[in-house]
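ENTRY TYPE: paired fold submission
RECORD: A
CONTENT: sequence, then structure tokens
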Amino acid sequence: VGKIYLVNKTENLETGNEDYFLIDYHRENVIWILGIAFLLLILLIGGMKGFRTIVSLACTISIVAFILIPSIEKGVNPLLGAVIASCLATALTMLLVAGVNIKSLASTLGTVIGVTISGLIATIVIDKAPLSGLATSESMILWGNQFYEINFKGLLAAGMIVSCLGAVMDVAISISSAILEIKVANPNYTVKELYNSGMNVGKDIMGTMTSTLVLA
């Protein structure tokens, strides 16, 4: 009583009888409340940078929804599409959040190189393991659909790339920002000293990021 449910209706074409099945709870209102609260907190804490963060998030989702997925449907190699989409999303995110500066350039290059190497490793592992990319009922349904000719191994690799993109960008901007602050605080630091500092920061991040990715 008092709950709203999602209901599925099926109709028997021969008899005209209708059957109804409960699918799940209707949770849309709660999701909207959580989503709006999340956005308000970003704006409250981050101010204008928080607003740019929201815009960059919308751009990233749009790139995946309107560029990556349609390109896969049209037969483009999913891994190649994922790498290109990741590069676009990274460049837009860094420019919007960090602005047009050397920090954005370093972060973007670091992310793009990292994602590209990850794509190559994923391709080798999927081929040698081997993995089919047909581990879910949804993929089996798509596999049986003659309308789409989808490269499921490539799709699996693309999923790996897109899912870890946020973590890679996080590491890239964290290290770039830290090194820039060091350079500002001590302009006499040489490139070698800055590189060593960056490696030390990266090693610390690597310890926690490994757990983050494995647990995710």
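RECORD: B
CONTENT: sequence, then structure tokens
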Amino acid sequence: DVGAFLSGGVDSSAVVAAMARQSDRPIKTFTIGFREERYNEAPYAEAIARHLGCDHTTHILEAEDAATVLPKLQSAYDEPFADSSAIPTWYLSRIAAGEVKVALSGDGGDELFFGYKRHMTERHVGRLPAPLRRAARVFAALPPLPMKAGNAVLQRWQKTARSAGLPDGGARFFAKTQITPPALRRRLFAGTQLQGWDEEGAIEALAAEYYPNMAAISNDTLEQFAMCDLALNLPGDMLTKVDRASMAHSLEVRVPMLGEDIVDLALAMPADVKLRGRTGKYPVRRAVEPWLPPGILDRRKQGFQIPMARWFGGDFGAQVEEIWRESGIAQSGFLNPRAV
């Protein structure tokens, strides 16, 4: 049997809707949900599954599940892997593997059709006059805000302002996809083998290492940004995450959005067709809208996030800290133990 991962977002919904139109029996679909409403896309996935007549399974993920799976993740990924959604992807693969041998996913749609919030941000930033973009770095130079939930919006603005003065869309891609702010990394690297590695100009140097001539890709900074997403983030993070988790359960996951015809079509489309005003993936939305429940695609993009802050505040965080202390990493010389 062939099933599908269904998050309730545009891309997985498009894939499942297309499958349902081709199949003479219900499609088996699988979703991970959370107790925390802010992170829980399961109700949207369930609504789409009902509409399409799918044989649907939802698994609610708890912090205890995450703690249990950590050693298995370490074994499957072989190296440090910073995408926390590897945890729900692992369980999603395990559940699907119990019922099907192959599952389809919607990976690739965001990168090809400009579905990330950062693509819209780059469109706005890239159109600002250079003097105004450089001035934005004054705001970025302010001390980083404490890592508290109430500061999340200002933290994002500060991150955007830090990247605004960078020379092109490629450099801004590297800046926007940082997980931690530079000031925090400098604390983590102080007195270690990495001290001085992340000083002024490090982002520009990293971007130039990958793309010495960014203008050869495109004169449009959004196209530059999106090509980095497609060529670096997609294989290095998204596809690796799903491949390792699924293969650990002997499950084949295929990505129809990355079929040659769709990739060729997407790369030939002008940026303003794919990102229309504030709506990313506009052509995909319009194509599949008649197949789905009315209004289901109108909500804001959520992404496959987990309630990490709350989990870290409980037993899961204590377990991670214990692993850090007892594994020998604390004495490795790569990160400053006090900063950690």
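NOTES ON RECORD B: Residues 221-247 form the longest helix (27 residues). The chain has a mean pLDDT of 89.
STATUS: closed
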